[in-house]
């Protein structure tokens, strides 16, 4: 999967590395601020058995 993404990114190695890290940051931010807050009330982590 990462190899396919790496081959599709334009530019040389420095540009690809920057774009890859930017995409990684966007994905992490999306998970942190959108997916995890939406999922937190639905996962019974703090509830006793």
UniProtKB/TrEMBL annotation:
Superkingdom, natural source: Bacteria
Keywords from the UniProt entry: Membrane, Transmembrane, Transmembrane helix
Regions that span the bilayer: 17-40
Name of protein: PspC domain-containing protein
High-level lineage: Bacteria, Bacillati, Actinomycetota, Actinomycetes, Streptosporangiales
């Amino acid at each position: 999967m990462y190899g396919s993404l790496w081959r599709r990114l334009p530019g040389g190695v420095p540009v690809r590395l920057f774009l890859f890290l930017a995409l990684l940051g966007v994905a992490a931010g999306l998970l942190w601020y959108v997916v995890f807050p939406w999922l937190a009330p639905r996962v019974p982590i703090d509830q006793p058995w």
